[in-house]
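Allow me, if you will, to draw on your knowledge of protein folds for a short while. A protein sequence and the structure tokens that stand for its backbone fold form the material at issue. I would ask you to consider whether the tokens describe a fold that such a sequence might reasonably adopt. Thank you for your consideration; the sequence and its tokens are set out here:
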Amino acid sequence: MSAPAGNTNATRWTHQQTHDMLDQIEELAWDESIHTLSQALLKVKGYKQLWSYWKKTWALEGDIMDRIYYIEQIFINKLEEGALFKRLNPSACYFILRQNYGYDSRAEPELPSHLVAELEASAAEVSATDTQTKVGKDSAATDAVRQPLLQPATVITSTGKNTARTSRQAMHHTRQ
């Protein structure tokens, strides 16, 4: 008979059990003879799908996700250093990094979901405070932004003459 929906005691991987397993994996991550996360998972009788399950299940749990990303970073670093110092085959390291971690030298790393949630929350707070302070000051702020573009600037031309121009004219002149 299955457990009722919402019964957190019925799940195999509770918060504490996941932490305990992550402790074991992190300890193995520092072992010099273990180069990949897959090797460490096998040592603790785990598997890649379990790792993926944890990442989805605990996506908004900052403490667990920080540990997961930290452990992944240990293995990424091992592969990068192994390739750099030729202890491991560089092509194999790049393949593993690309397949397992979405490694791409041109791409910017994505933020973990729990950090995205924090970032969005703080952005919403800043936006709310900015909206409250800007009420009635929109025209003054716009004028303050436009004003410097019309201020005269001294430009020294190629002939050595000082010429008074607006900032906009000076920018146009220097581009030519």
User: Anything to note?
Assistant: The beta strands are 152-156, 162-166.
